[in-house]
Every structure is written in structure tokens, then in C-alpha cells.
Design a protein that fits this description.
Number of domains of chain A: 2
Oligomer: heterodimer
Structural class of chain A: alpha/beta
Helix content of chain A: 25-40%
Largest sheet of chain B: 6 strands, parallel
Strand content of chain A: 15-25%
Strand order of the largest sheet of chain A: 2-1-3-4-6-5-10
CATH superfamily of the largest domain in chain A: Thiamin diphosphate (ThDP)-binding fold, Pyr/PP domains
Largest interface: A-B, 40 and 46 residues
Number of strands of chain B: 8
Radius of gyration of chain A: 20 Å
CATH superfamily of chain B: Thiamin diphosphate (ThDP)-binding fold, Pyr/PP domains
CATH topology of the largest domain in chain A: Rossmann fold
Shape of chain B: globular
Number of helices of chain A: 12
Helix content of chain B: 40-55%
């Protein structure tokens, strides 16, 4: 099974389980989804539940909010994260604020999914990692599934959540292969996961950088460096406890993020470690982030713009003395 | 044929909004009310006229100039005033203020202070009704300024495409804050824009509450017939400044005075008298003043939400 199929299976389960659930977005129906996530769902569920929308991000995201207020459980797909900026007003000014602004009267049970990340030579308007921006906003939850079980289970958890949940699916992961247990269901969306335990350094990452970090850790194992790799899974709310416990064991932290360094989620995590685990540290917190430029098209420039296995490994080596 | 009981009720509702807001302005200068305060004075016939077409099961999405709509929808004056005082007895626990009045029981979905931002919500509410086969209307109020926003055009297209049961009320008061209609719009007959989306539309004299009511009832019937949205442009005028910060440098006093000759309250009184109905205005003023005073007393007696509750309702609370 692929990551794409895992997401599709979760959407299918949600549609079957609850007649209030429907999917809407650009090309989700007849085209089958820009990334083929919803392929086949139109013929299975019909056009009322698999709704092709016009190219009107603000209107259909806002309509998702309104439909959620009206008792539905919409899943809205935005084709890619850069397009979500056309709907940012609705996400920020309505979805995230309505419950608080109304004194607790109007919760918004809405799921918004979108593709994120670089690595496909799609240049500067289709490749950014803006999930860290969204994590700035109180009132929404920000999920970044990196493994099949999360691609599937986070969507099922999100659809049961009473509040707006944004799911960022790194487009490079859609073809990732893996196993999904037959009884797979909703997963916890509050905690980070230690994907590889280690003693020497906590490598904190999420999304498509997780696989790269794990590969870097494997490569370094032969050199006597034992890196712990943490998958953040959820960027808002951040799971401080798992991060601080890890740092207390390893005494070093490297944050790997495709997003930009300045003011990004990596800065937030670094600040929290400094605030909460300063005396556990044996070295300054390090960050490996996206280069501070719009994403270039040329393959070699794009590759240089985001963390790679080699640069992650080099960053770890720069922080850790190998065991003799 | 004018129904005197109903006309009297409309008059009283308009008078309540007028006197309520005049008090709001006073209370603003006394710093009981802070933040932005946008008065509806002059435009009362629109909100009150349209509200006559709506039933309790219908939904309302309004703008940041929505005291009149909230009162006309049935929110008690005291609860609205308490909200403006920032008290937890307010309709939004004091978290919203003047621009963000909400009431779930009345299906009153705000109080949206992003121009055009309520439109997508409204079509979403209507979409939910369409999917669930609920024979309900969602009524969305917005101004002439919103018609220049992309969201208006996106929503007109989507509502028409999906035949959504939404009543779109454009409150055209001729100014987007301080920018006059003809400095904002290439086509100033705003209802004509609906033709591009195959949405039926018309314009009505927004200073004539009975005309607004009639037009809104026809429009609502059209929406409920299943044909999709209807755009009603209500041509009106704001007598007061945009907000309490506005020195009104952008319009002539003479223009304001000219529009005041078409004040919806005296216009209705004249229409009633022309139909042979006597209006006991002094008695009505007394009742309204009492209602407003009681509202202010309720707000004054209200309490502040404990600061410890600041972070409540950022997310839903787990059911205990």
C-alpha cells in the first residue's frame, strides 16, 4: 500500500462511517485528485459527497467552515500549500477564531488537507513548506503525517475532532510504500514519536525530512554515532514533553525542517528547548532548514535548498564525538 | 394594504435600534464601550425589513455593523449591550465586542469584521442545508465594499453553480468606509453584477422598511423554491460616521442632510399616517427608552470573565 492509498482509505472509511462527511476541492472528483488521492471516490460516493469546486480557494474553504457550522463534517482539499494562501483569510479569521470569538458557541469541525514540500522541481509557487506558519495560529491543529499509519489514522482522528485540523501531506510521500494493519484506525494526534531511539543526539523533524533523517542516522551508526530521530507528527500543539525527555537523555538537539529558518517552527522548537531543557544541553541547539530563498527550479539548486541525507549526517557529525 | 399592528411593530423595532445606538455613542464617549463602534443609524430599515422574511430555523450572517440585525433577530438589548461593555453576560462572553455578536440559539453567526468574509460562511451553511434537504435559508448581509472583494465573486459563482439556498443582502450605503461607490465600482448598480452569475437580483429602496420587507419576502420565496441564491441590493445611507474614529472628510454635510430627509423612521410614520393610522410616538419612545435603559442596567450589573478563563474556547473542551 502507498501513502496515497492510505489517505484514500481513510477518506473512504470516514465517508462510510458518517453521512455528514464529504470531500470538496479542486479536481477531487472527475480528475481523481491532483495527486490522485481521491481517485475512484466519485464513482463510489457520487458528486454530492465528492465535490469538484471552482478555483475559488477562499470560497470553498469558507464554505467548508460554514458547512461545519451547519452540522456537516467536511474534508476540504487544497491542491497545494501555496494555494492555501488564497484561503488564509478564512482559515485564520474564521476557522481559527470563531469558537473563542463567540464565547464558546461555535466550534468548527473541519478538516483541511493539502500537499506541501519541495523536491519535485515545481519552483517557487508550488514547493514551500508553510505548515510552520500555520502552526503559529491558536485555534487550529497542524498535523504532518510522515508514515502510512499516520497518513491514514491522523485523518480519521481529525474527522472526529471538534475543531479545525489542517493536515499537510508532503507530496513526495504519496508514493511511499508501507504496511497498514488490517485494524488500523484513528491515531493519537497529541504526541511526537521516537522513530529511532539513540543516545547521542536528538534529531527532531517531521514530514519528508523524517525519512532522510532516519537514513542519515543509519549511515552514522557504522561510524559509532547513535542518533535518536523524533517525528514531531503534530506541529500544533507541540509535544514538549517528548522533546525535552529526549534532550535530557541525549543532551544535544538538531532540528531538521524544510521550512525557512527565520521565524520558523525550528526557531520555536529551539526556543522551547532553551527555555525548558537548557541545563540538559551539552552543546548549542542546531538547525538545518530550507535555504532562505524562494524555491528554485533547477534540480541541483532545489536539492541545495532543502535538507538532504548528506547534510543532515554532516550536521549530526558536527555535533557529536563518535564513540571510540 | 398596510397592517397597522405590523407597521407599528416595525416602527418600534427601528426606533429601538436608533435609540439603542444613540446610547451606544454616548456610552462610547464615557468609555463604557471601547474598540470600534459602527453605528447602523440611517440603515435600520434594511436589517429590520429583511429580518421579517426570516424564520427561526433560518440562519443569519452579518457584518461588523450588526447591532440592528442582532436586535431585530431577537437578541435582548441587555445581552448586546453587555457584549459591548465586554461583560461575560454578553452574547459572546465579552470576547467579541460590537463587531462580533453571536447567538447559536438564534442561528446568528456573527458579526464578521473582515469585509466579505461572511459570504463563504453563509454559502457553507446553505450548502449544509442543501445536502441535508433542510428547507432553510441562510441570509448574508454585506456592504457595497464587499462587492469589490474577490470573495463576493467567488461566492456568487459557487452559490449559483450549486443552487445554494442563500439570500444575499447587499446593504449599499454608498461608502466603503470613506470611499464613495463610484470610486470603488466600475458598475455602480451593484445588483447588475449578479447577471454575470445567472443569479436573480433586484434593487430596493433601503430607506423604506415596507418595501425592503416585501422585496426580502419575494426573494426568500425564490430561494426556498430551490432555484438557488438571490441578490437583493438595498440602497441606503449611513447618517453617522463610519466608526467613532471617522472625521468624515470624504462627504459633504449637505449630502448627509439630503439623505436624512429620507430617514426610514419618519418615512414609516408618514406612510402610516397617510394610511390613516395614528402613531402614539411618545408612548413608543417611552417603551423603547425603558428597554434601552434596562439593557444598560443589565450591562452595568454584569461581571468580567475571570482572566483565568482567557484560554478557554481556543479549542473545544472535552465533555466532562
Amino acid at each position: 500500500m502507498t501513502y496515497r492509498e492510505a489517505v484514500r482509505e481513510a477518506i473512504r472509511k470516514a465517508l462510510r462511517a458518517d453521512d455528514r462527511v464529504f470531500l470538496m476541492g479542486e479536481d477531487v472528483g472527475r480528475y481523481g485528485g491532483c495527486y490522485a488521492v481521491s481517485k475512484g471516490l466519485l464513482s463510489e460516493f457520487g458528486p454530492d459527497r465528492i465535490r469538484d469546486t471552482p478555483l475559488s480557494e477562499s470560497a470553498f474553504v469558507g464554505a467548508g467552515i460554514g458547512a461545519a457550522l451547519g452540522g456537516m463534517r467536511p474534508i476540504v482539499e487544497i491542491m497545494t500549500v501555496n494555494f492555501s494562501l488564497l484561503a488564509l483569510d478564512q482559515i485564520m479569521n474564521n476557522a481559527a477564531t470563531l469558537l473563542h470569538m463567540s464565547g464558546g458557541q461555535f466550534n468548527v469541525p473541519l478538516v483541511i488537507r493539502m500537499a506541501t514540500g519541495g523536491g519535485r522541481q515545481l519552483a517557487a509557487q508550488h514547493s514551500h513548506s508553510l505548515e510552520g506558519w500555520y502552526a503559529h495560529i491558536p485555534g487550529i491543529k497542524v498535523l504532518t503525517p510522515a508514515v502510512l499509519e499516520d497518513a491514514h489514522g491522523m485523518l480519521l482522528a481529525a474527522i472526529q475532532d471538534p475543531d479545525p485540523v489542517l493536515i499537510f501531506e508532503n507530496a513526495l510521500l504519496y508514493n511511499a510504500e508501507g504496511e497498514l494493519p488490517a485494524n488500523a484506525g484513528p491515531v493519537d494526534i497529541r504526541h511526537a514519536a521516537i522513530r529511532r531511539p539513540g543516545r547521542d543526539v536528538s534529531v527532531i523533524t517531521y514530514g519528508n525530512s523524517l525519512g532522510k533523517a532516519l537514513e542519515a542516522a543509519r549511515n552514522l551508526a557504522g561510524k559509532g554515532i547513535d542518533a535518536e530521530v523524533i517525528d514531531l507528527r503534530t506541529l500544533r500543539p507541540l509535544d514538549d514533553r517528548t522533546l525535552m525527555d529526549s534532550v535530557a537523555r541525549t543532551h544535544r538537539a538538531l532540528i531538521v525542517d524544510e521550512g525557512w529558518r527565520s521565524g520558523g517552527i525550528s526557531a520555536e522548537i529551539s526556543a522551547r528547548i532553551t527555555e525548558q531543557a537548557f541545563y540538559d544541553l551539552d552543546a548549542p541547539v542546531q538547525r538545518l532548514c530550507g535555504a532562505e530563498c524562494p524555491m528554485p527550479y533547477a534540480a541541483h539548486l532545489e536539492a541545495a535548498s532543502i535538507p538532504q541525507v548528506a547534510t543532515i549526517a554532516a550536521a549530526i557529525e558536527g555535533m557529536v564525538q563518535p564513540h571510540g | 394594504m398596510m397592517n397597522p399592528v405590523h407597521a407599528t411593530d416595525l416602527l418600534k423595532q427601528m426606533l429601538l435600534v436608533r435609540r439603542f445606538e444613540e446610547k451606544c455613542a454616548e456610552l462610547y464617549t464615557q468609555e463604557k464601550i471601547r474598540g470600534f463602534l459602527h453605528l447602523y443609524i440611517g440603515e435600520e430599515a434594511v436589517g429590520i425589513g429583511v429580518m421579517q422574511a426570516l424564520r427561526p430555523e433560518d440562519a443569519v450572517v452579518a457584518t461588523y455593523r450588526e447591532h440592528g440585525h442582532a436586535l431585530a433577530r431577537g437578541m435582548p438589548a441587555g445581552v448586546v449591550m453587555a457584549e459591548m461593555f465586554g461583560k461575560q453576560e454578553g452574547c459572546s462572553r465579552g470576547r467579541g465586542g460590537s463587531m462580533h455578536l453571536f447567538d447559536a440559539k438564534l442561528r446568528f453567526y456573527g458579526g464578521n469584521a473582515i469585509v466579505g468574509g461572511g459570504l463563504p460562511l453563509a454559502i457553507g451553511l446553505a450548502l449544509a442545508d442543501k445536502i441535508r434537504n433542510n428547507a432553510r435559508v441562510t441570509c448574508c448581509f454585506f456592504g457595497d465594499g464587499a462587492v469589490a472583494e474577490g470573495e463576493f465573486h467567488e461566492c456568487m459563482n459557487l452559490a449559483s453553480l450549486w443552487k445554494l439556498p442563500v439570500l444575499l443582502i447587499c446593504e449599499n450605503n454608498r461608502y466603503a468606509m470613506g470611499t464613495r461607490l463610484d470610486f470603488s465600482h466600475s458598475v455602480t448598480d451593484l445588483y447588475k453584477k449578479a447577471a454575470a452569475y445567472a443569479v436573480p437580483a433586484s434593487a430596493v429602496d433601503g430607506m423604506d422598511v415596507l418595501a425592503v420587507e416585501d422585496a426580502a419576502k419575494s426573494a426568500t420565496a425564490a430561494v426556498l423554491s430551490g432555484q438557488g441564491p438571490y441578490l437583493l441590493e438595498c440602497r441606503t445611507y449611513r447618517f453617522r460616521a463610519h466608526s467613532m474614529y471617522d472625521p468624515e472628510l470624504y462627504r459633504e454635510k449637505a449630502e448627509v442632510e439630503e439623505w436624512k430627509k429620507r430617514d426610514p423612521i419618519p418615512m414609516l410614520i408618514q406612510a402610516m399616517e397617510a394610511n390613516g393610522f395614528k402613531v402614539d410616538l411618545a408612548d413608543m419612545e417611552g417603551q423603547v427608552a425603558k428597554q434601552v435603559d434596562e439593557g444598560i442596567a443589565f450591562a452595568e450589573a454584569g461581571s468580567w470573565e475571570p482572566v483565568a478563563d482567557l484560554l478557554r474556547f481556543v479549542y473545544s473542551e472535552d465533555p466532562a
